[in-house]
């Protein structure tokens, strides 16, 4: 299993617009992909213009298919990326799950 975590700083005042793009993307992208096991996006209640993505994939190939899809390119690499100031991509390996 491949786990990706992305803390994302958005441009000032773009929280609602970013959330709308993610809500449109989720069922079309990750929700339709067999290799995407979990796709969760969190907002910070104390920090505006910030999102945290936590994603679980069956494999590196599944992640590559996810980021190579047309809907990803249109909504995430396209519209969403225009709203981002900075992000970090962090790879994780599952240690314990309940």
From TrEMBL:
Q: Which InterPro entries match?
A: ABM_dom, Dimeric_a/b-barrel
Does the record bear Cell wall biogenesis/degradation in its keywords?
Answer: no
Name assigned to this protein: Quinol monooxygenase YgiN
Annotated ABM domain ranges read: 2-94
Q: What is the organism field in this record?
A: Actinocrispum wychmicini
Pfam families under this entry? ABM
**Position of the signal peptide:** none
Which top-rank group of organisms is this from? Bacteria
UniProt keyword list = Monooxygenase, Oxidoreductase
Q: What is the lineage of its organism?
A: Bacteria, Bacillati, Actinomycetota, Actinomycetes, Pseudonocardiales
Gene Ontology molecular functions: monooxygenase activity
